[in-house]
Amino acid sequence: NFTKPSVDIYNSLPICNFSILNNDTSVYKVIISQTLHSYDIIEQRYGKNLYPGGHYIPQECRTEQRLALIICYRNREQHLKMFLDNIHPFLQKQQLDYTIFIINQNGNDQFNRAALFNVGYLEAMKLYPYDCFIFHDVDLLPEDLRNIYKCGDQPRHMSVAVDKFNYKLLYSTLFGGVTAFSLSDFVGTHGYPTVYWGWGGEDDDMYLRVVKKLKKSITRYPMEIARYKMVRTHDHTSGKANPHRHTILYSKYDYNLDGINATNYTLHNIEFYKLFTLINVTLTEEP
Ligand code: BGN
């Protein structure tokens, strides 16, 4: 389990209140590092105040939220290194209590991004009282410090403007890339669907869960803030598109029957590295 600073000292701190009101680009524009650094270098730079498992708690103030940053992952080590090299300084500047969870899918089945997110949620909740969940692709890097990684009273689509798509939103209900949910909103959607194997559709399904199950609308930060760089590396192979995605999405199946509680997986191990917690699983399909 994760440690917390002594209660007495902690309670006397002012509340963390990071915000940027300044209009000076140099204050909020992130200089993204695309150099491939070793874990050692990244640890030296950003690991100083990390608790085991990539858990950071600001020293100078008291946080109101505890963020679990859940990354779905398989075989993309270059992306992972770049992600860690950029996301740690970003979140530390925002004065957040955060933990980086890497959810690794074992085996050769089609990738199941959404089921991995549910695993991240379930395993994170066993470790620390998280109340904010951000589900994140490993190849997206935030470019603006005003894009604050906190949860509000509506689910938020974070990756609105991505360089690969010329910083334009592809369609108005797009809910892929990076999303943020308070604990109660996530539970209220029943979690991500588990039946999407391979690329596509799972994020659209989650969008429908927000609207139809949770009965809320999604929110977004302004386009000029919610900007991301999608990194390209040599070890990247996209999964195969799921040929059944339209059928499942439009079948209007009962969301109560699929979601967090339907996530079938074998947990192989959890490792608390300096820069992240690795949760290694095999996902199993319902017979
Ligand atoms: C959409 C995909 C999303 C993906 C975005 C952006 C589908 C479902 C079709 C019914 N949706 O087309 O999953 O995030 O593109 O790439 O394929």
From TrEMBL:
Q: Name one GO biological process term.
A: carbohydrate metabolic process
Q: Report the pathway entry.
A: Protein modification; protein glycosylation
> What subcellular compartments does it reside in?
Membrane
User: Which EC number(s) are documented for this chain?
Assistant: 2.4.1.-
* Keyword Glycoprotein included in the entry's annotation: yes
Q: Name one GO cellular component term.
A: Golgi apparatus
On whether Transmembrane is a keyword of this UniProt record, the answer is yes
**Swiss-Prot/TrEMBL keywords:** Glycoprotein, Glycosyltransferase, Membrane, Signal-anchor, Transferase, Transmembrane, Transmembrane helix
Instruction: Report how it sits in the membrane.
Output: Single-pass type II membrane protein
What GO molecular function annotation could you give as one example from this UniProt entry? galactosyltransferase activity
Which coarse location class describes where this protein primarily resides?
membrane
Q: Which family does it belong to?
A: Belongs to the glycosyltransferase 7 family.
Q: What does this protein do?
A: Catalyses the transfer of galactose onto proteins or lipids.
Supply the name of the protein. Beta-1,4-galactosyltransferase
Species name: Rotaria sordida
The beginning of the lineage is: Eukaryota, Metazoa, Spiralia, Gnathifera, Rotifera
Full-protein interval shown: 139 to 425 of 439
